[in-house]
Amino acid sequence: MIKDSIPEKIFGRVNVLLLILLSLVMVFPLYYVFSISLTDPREYLKGGIILYPRGLTWDNYEYLFSTPLFIRSIGISAFLAIVGTTLGLIVTSSLAYTLSRKRLLGRKIILLLILITILFHPGIIPNYLLIRELGLMNSLWSLILPALSSGWNVFLMKSFFDSIPASLEEAAVIDGCNDMHVWWRIILPLSLPALATFGLFFAVAYWNVFFNAVLYINDFKKWPLQLVLRQMLIDSNTSAGGGNILEEGQMVNPQSIKMAAVIIATIPIMMVYPFLQKHFAKGVMVGSVKE
Amino acid sequence: MKKVLAAVNPGNENPSQTRMRRRMKIIFRDRYLYLLALPGLFFFLLFKYIPMWGLVIAFQNYSPYVGILNSDWVGLEHFARFFSNSDFYILLRNTLAISFMNLLFFFPAPIILSIMMNEVRQVVLKRLIQTVIYFPHFLSWVIIAGISFIMLGQSEGVINSILSLFGMEKIPFLTSSSLFWPMLTLQNIWKDAGWGTVIFLAAISGIDPTLYEAAKMDGASKLKQIWHVTLPGIGNVILVLLILKLGDVMDVGFEQVFLMGSAAVSNVADVFDTYVYRNGVLNGEFSYTASVGLFKSIVGLIMVMGANKLAKMFGQDGLY
């Protein structure tokens, strides 16, 4: 190892400094939102930059948790995340596992057909009409079913299952297991860490679902959290959709309440984030680019 | 092949029958495996392939009351109407402008960032920076929009508050047509530049460390090492991601534009998807907007296949 020269040391220091500065810039908006969410609305109206919560109060959060529509939308989003993730993992992992078995006849054709779905998207209208024809409008299934799998997810999971040796399942087959038993009793338990990672990605996607909800859910009683949030943040003084979203007679929600809602929507993601991060480096993404 | 089969099976069955039988045998042996694939295959058929078939309505006057099978065929009428519409040029301009802004400023951001991160020696610090810059990727566009309003707003926004504190003029980030595209690019960078480094950092860690040693021996400076070792080392990954991005050139995130657009910027914020949503989903012009969507998809397909071919011509691996 050759020692760093002085210019290289300077390079290193400047580099680190820039990155720290950048991280601060990245984190500042979230911190700012957080401090507004704990600020008394009357204090907020006095204006100025709120670098720390002024008139520290939990009122904004208490207010949100006393509004039925908000509570319900959290319940709906949690339902989507739990049911969608469970079903999505089953559907995607079973298909990905089968496609990772090289002895499967027709494997190449199926892989090609799935690649095509990555390259060509039919667009909004055919999907919209399909959901309508299936009678899923205003049903939460319209948000769960179309997102159960995707070409990328299948390829990602497949490249993970590729690394499980065939000898493992051969042993199980000799012991009298059929392929479904092998998948359920051997492959899935073995893949739990990877499945957990995929599951977290699924859960975040379901928690954040917005576009499909805009398309398919008109009944504001069935709105997931993101739609309610949007209504609060953007349309709070128009009466589209469910009228004034939080309370009759209140024209505009104070900024501090909006920001409390943003924080509440962010907290579940913050909670799963450490687990997500644990797996970043493990190469879940690495094999994915090339398929 | 046929000869071989005939030699193996001297009976009076013809070879194609034998092959058929052998295939059936294999399929029967793997019957549980096929059963396992069934839900997934059904999903792809229903939610990916049936919508592709549904695109035929782009060539019809589709009416929900008579259904796809009984609607009148009109050929390319909807396409002709779309291309002769002055909206088309505005949509195309906005979409391409937003895409190329992203390609130019957002695409290189994670590459630069990952090269910078790779030079950080302190492991704990590196972890910390990663934790911070990955996080926004997981936030929904609704949350990002909410944060943007509070940061960039005219009257209450932080940046404008700071500007007016110093006696400078306020900047109408959210309501100015000329700032709308840069604002979208900035949002993209804030949300995804950090996350984008995951893949490049992985690629950089795969570079043979002896290459750096050799470069150092030859007296190459840090910048020269980055230029001559790091960048070529991740060239293929950059290329693959660029191909994917080119395929998405017609796809500017609907959610982002839909949330950030307002009456003040509608002239620069209308893209293909918002147009399809407005005229198709809200106004029920299904056939017309399906043709707009089909046009978009075909251009996307041509872009990604063309870029892939180009990559292969330059001796790179490409996407598929």
TrEMBL record, chain A:
Gene3D superfamilies: MetI-like
SUPFAM superfamilies linked to this entry: MetI-like (SSF161098)
CDD domains referenced in this protein's UniProt entry, alphabetically: TM_PBP2
Topology relative to the membrane: Multi-pass membrane protein
Keyword Membrane: yes
Family to which this protein belongs: Belongs to the binding-protein-dependent transport system permease family.
Protein name listed in UniProt: Carbohydrate ABC transporter permease
UniProtKB/TrEMBL annotation, chain B:
Ranges that cross the membrane: 32-50, 95-116, 128-150, 193-214, 226-244, 286-307
Name assigned to this protein: ABC transporter permease
Keywords tagged on the record: Membrane, Transmembrane, Transmembrane helix, Transport
Membrane topology: Multi-pass membrane protein
Principal subcellular localisation of the protein: membrane
Classification via Gene3D superfamilies: MetI-like
Alphabetical list of CDD domains matching this protein: TM_PBP2 (cd06261)
One protein family per Pfam: BPD_transp_1
Localization in the cell: Cell membrane; Membrane
Domain named ABC transmembrane type-1: residues: 92-307
Record family assignment: Belongs to the binding-protein-dependent transport system permease family.
